[in-house]
């Protein structure tokens, strides 16, 4: 508190869409999308009070806040609220975006108020991932999703080693999302079935390393859709309508398509034939930011 004024810190963090799902092999890739979780943190006398809009479980937020306080060696109360236009449990990294936003907001607040040690970007990401694992919202730690959300653009990662193989900007294409409005929690997905497709996911990963991003995304999408029982017609309908690439994001249920401007209406029309909603967004190259 300075002069009786309570400092607030606000952070905006994008969701991400999948190029390669890391569950089968431990290596993954994702890119930022312009759908966001915004977190605001301020100091209160005691306790950690969390609220969300729309309403979701606040366990992840609470763990993120506690981990930052523990790391910085500070005891204080916090009030944290989040707002989001990212569909929850839909494969679009709502958990990674939330953990990044809350972790960075609390860190920025506490480090300024209490003049603590300085953490770098990777420290923040590590804290956010550890929080997601503790909250049980991820299988691998989602290092690919977390880094794509934090840095924006495209990241390629070794999730098991928590190493970034590549990060950089991605062509700012339109992204069409088909969300069946059925929740699919990553931690409940069938890991055994996904491990069966690992030799073919490796092929998709090699395509990605050869800079064939769209080919890798589509192949990954077909493989994981088949393993998890999702309808692959959704992918082929998007490709038939002119999408550059289409696939399953995360463990579903959302599908994504990367599309040139002149083909957007065609892909939207194709996916409007399915029950649920179609969302139009774009690639995000900015990443997580204090606002």
TrEMBL record:
Residues 63-153 form the GHMP kinase N-terminal domain. It comes from the Archaea. It catalyses: shikimate + ATP = 3-phosphoshikimate + ADP + H(+). It is found in: Cytoplasm. Residues 211-273 form the GHMP kinase C-terminal domain. Keywords: Amino-acid biosynthesis, Aromatic amino acid biosynthesis, ATP-binding, Cytoplasm, Kinase, Nucleotide-binding, Transferase. SUPFAM superfamilies: GHMP Kinase, C-terminal domain, Ribosomal protein S5 domain 2-like. One of its GO terms (biological process) is chorismate biosynthetic process. GO terms for molecular function: ATP binding; shikimate kinase activity. PROSITE patterns: GHMP_KINASES_ATP. Its EC number is 2.7.1.71. GO terms for cellular component: cytoplasm. Pfam families: GHMP_kinases_C, GHMP_kinases_N. It is an enzyme of class 2 (transferase). ATP binds at residues 87-97. Pathway: Metabolic intermediate biosynthesis; chorismate biosynthesis; chorismate from D-erythrose 4-phosphate and phosphoenolpyruvate: step 5/7. Belongs to the GHMP kinase family. Archaeal shikimate kinase subfamily. This is Shikimate kinase. It comes from Methanothermus fervidus (strain ATCC 43054 / DSM 2088 / JCM 10308 / V24 S). The lineage of its organism: Archaea, Methanobacteriati, Methanobacteriota, Methanomada group, Methanobacteria.
